[in-house]
Amino acid sequence: MSETVEEFVVEIENVSFRYGQRNVLENVTLPIKKGAFLGLVGPNGSGKSTLIKCILGLHRPQQGSIKLFGQKVERFREWDRIGFVSQKANSFNSGFPATVFEVVSMGLFGKVGLFRFLTRKHKQKVKDVIKSVGMSDYIHQNIGELSGGQQQRVFIARALVSDPDLLILDEPTVGVDTKSVQNFYSMLTRLNRERKITLLLVTHDIGAMTDNVTDVACINKHLHFHGDSKSFEENPDLSAFYGHDVHLLTHNHHHHGGH
Question: What is the CATH classification number for the domain harbouring 64?
Answer without folding.
Answer: 3.40.50.300
